[in-house]
């Protein structure tokens, strides 16, 4: 699938709040999803999270991915060691994939979500007017379907 991709081509660039950590990817995300779950909302402190899912092989952080934290079994997240900005999420059931919040990217406006996940945990006062599919689970299979 990636055989013809030039691995030196930067597709997306981004940085944390303070700028100490930067990120670049050499491919577009596999999918982009809103997540309404309480875990992601607490992690980002936002009313809804939006993540781009990448093959971890195409993502490079400098100087590194930050500090690691596991507060819930099976989920590892990292944050900038200097400013605390959320950087990545990794899920044991999605090996090889890394989730990065769309808002740390310079090209956030090009990273439009394709699906709402954990819709059942959506804050009742949050209304996003779109026609995207809404699922109550993590949609681990649906997420990859939606990226086609
Ligand atoms: Zn979530
Ligand atoms: Zn920072």
What tags apply to this protein structure?
single chain; 148 residues; mainly beta; glutathione-dependent formaldehyde- activating enzyme (gfa); five-stranded mixed sheet; 2 helices; 11 strands; globular; binds zinc ion
Give the helices and strands, then pairings.
Blueprint: E1 12-15, E2 22-25, E3 31-35, H1 38-44, E4 49-55, E5 59-62, E6 67-72, E7 75-79, E8 86-91, E9 97-101, E10 115-117, E11 133-134, H2 140-146
Parallel strand pairs: 3-10, 10-11
Antiparallel strand pairs: 1-2, 2-5, 3-4, 4-9, 6-7, 7-8
Bound molecules: zinc ion (2 copies).
The site of one zinc ion (ZN) has 9 residues, from loops.
Total domain units: 1
Beginning-to-end CA distance, first to last residue: 13 Å
Residue ranges: pLDDT <50 for 5 or more in a row?
none
Mean pLDDT: 91
Main pleated sheet? 5 strands, mixed
Strand order of the largest sheet: 9-4-3-10-11
Assembly type = single chain
CATH superfamily: glutathione-dependent formaldehyde- activating enzyme (gfa)
- Output the CATH class name: Alpha Beta
What count of helical segments does DSSP give?
2
CATH fold-type name: glutathione-dependent formaldehyde- activating enzyme (gfa)
**Strand/helix succession:** EEEHEEEEEEEEH
CATH architecture: Alpha-Beta Complex
Distinct ligands:
zinc ion
Assess the beta-strand content as a share of residues: 25-35%
Count of DSSP E strands?
Answer: 11
Question: Helicity level, as a percent range?
Answer: under 10%
């Amino acid at each position: 699938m990636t055989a013809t991709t030039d691995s030196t081509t930067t597709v997306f660039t981004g940085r944390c709040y303070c700028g100490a950590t930067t990120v670049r990817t050499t491919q577009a995300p596999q999918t982009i999803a809103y997540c309404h779950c309480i875990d992601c909302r607490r992690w980002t402190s936002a009313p809804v999270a939006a993540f781009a899912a990448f093959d971890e092989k195409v993502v490079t952080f400098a100087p590194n991915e930050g500090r690691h934290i596991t507060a819930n079994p099976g989920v590892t997240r990292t944050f900038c060691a200097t400013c605390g900005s959320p950087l990545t999420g990794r899920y044991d059931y999605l090996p090889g994939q890394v989730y990065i919040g769309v808002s740390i990217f310079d090209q956030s406006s090009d990273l439009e979500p394709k699906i709402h996940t954990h819709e059942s945990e959506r804050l009742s006062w949050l209304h996003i007017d779109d026609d995207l599919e809404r699922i109550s689970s993590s949609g681990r299979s649906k997420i990859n379907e939606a990226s086609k």
